[in-house]
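Notes from the 1:1 (GR / supervisor)

We went over the backlog. Supervisor wanted to see one worked example end to end before approving the batch request, so GR pasted a single chain during the call. The sequence is below; no edits were made to it. Supervisor asked that the structure be written out right there so they could see what the output format looks like.
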Amino acid sequence: MTKLLILTTATNRADLHKHVFLGYKRFLTSKNVYDDGIKKIVWVVNIDRIDDFTTSVDFVQRRIEKIFSNRKIDFRWLVRREGNFYKAVRTLFKQGVKIINDDTGKDGGGGIGGVDGIGGVDGIGGVDGIGGVDGDWKVLYLEDDWWYRDSRHIDFFTSMMKRERLDYLELRTCPTPTERYTYFAPSLWSSSHFFRVASHFLAEKPNRCQDPEQICKPVRWKRGGEAKYVFVDIGRDWLKNQGLTKNNNKKLRGARNMMYSPDSE
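Structure output shown during the call:
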């Protein structure tokens, strides 16, 4: 049975989350989820505090927990009082590697690539060789500002990945399907693809001014697919309604006047 690890970067904008995460709840709900389709869900959420947004981080966490209060989800919360997108993704990936390795070791698999004490994750090294060491795990990369607009649920797509032996499934209209890039748009990754991406990203010398998506983008999937229009981006429209714009380079997510700046129009 499938085990699902969800990785989310978020900021303190609870009014947006009220709508977005209700959609995520519908996406994660069907007769098979928690029954015979998905065995467990672990959801790691990194919340970056943005000074320009007035909602407290604690309120954001409580709101999301309340939305999913009647669902069996193991939430893991990471809070940064000074937001930075690069550091948020780095923390998410480290946590994801540890969660899968700990679970694999508990089941007698001994972990993947000897990365149990990931630290700087030097031990991931040759992740290409891990294959599908724990094929039960799927990773859903899902940021906090996408609108779910489909009627199909998570188990439909995890079954599709298993049936078609995919290691990457993008859940939106992909802008470059022939390039096989890894995007941070809503997407499902096999555990082996996740470890390839994590290995590539965490092997880089830390630089908080880099865009983590651009670092991970060249890690091409081997067998992938596209499910158009499952999610659409509403984050930029929300920012515009707040009188803010999002810098194209994404360099410092959460750094005031660098990631978000007053709308000049």
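Supervisor's comment: The first strand starts at residue 2 and ends at 11.
Batch request approved.
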